[in-house]
């Protein structure tokens, strides 16, 4: 009788576990998130993937240099080395805005500083929420996709494209 009693107890435990499995909420598969910085360039909203940023600095003194490249604002010291700083607004096709309060470092091997005026904040979103670039946004330079922050769509700046444009510009 002890053998059948333990089998009966095991069956009851299995039945309870089975019933409980329907009461537990389904756990979603882990989502892949993407971190971005929401910024304003020439008053317009933009976003930049955090993975493409090597550093972010505020209120750095930019030492001006004479240059045939009008987007070059000058040089600045970061972490014991000098880096050129460019006006992000001018690189995106807006009138030059001068040195902004914020400078981000793009590029890991040869860092390049990009100055802009306003940091809106950090945005974490699922990778699926970064939508492809539509026809209306296709005219924006150096952007790749859109991200919605609240009710505002932010074009996502492709820093690799910006840095490559700077390299081509400097070579010529």
Task: List the defining traits of the structure above.
172 residues; alpha+beta; OB fold (Dihydrolipoamide Acetyltransferase, E2P); five-stranded mixed sheet; 3 helices
What can you see in these coordinates?
The chain is of the alpha+beta class and 172 residues long. The protein has a single domain, classed as OB fold (Dihydrolipoamide Acetyltransferase, E2P) (Beta Barrel). 23% of the residues lie in helices and 39% in strands. It has helices at residues 2-23, 88-91, 159-171, and strands at 33-41, 44-49, 53-58, 72-78, 81-87, 102-106, 112-116, 118-126, 143-149, 152-157. The strands form 2 sheets. Strands 8-1-2-10-9 form a 5-stranded mixed sheet. A 5-stranded mixed sheet has the order 3-6-7-5-4. The protein is elongated.
How would you describe the shape?
elongated
Head-to-tail CA distance between termini: 93 Å
Which secondary-structure class do the elements indicate? alpha+beta
In N-to-C order, the SSE pattern is: HEEEEEHEEEEEH
Portion of residues in beta strands equals 35-45%
Low-confidence stretches: none
Biggest β-sheet, characterized? 5 strands, mixed
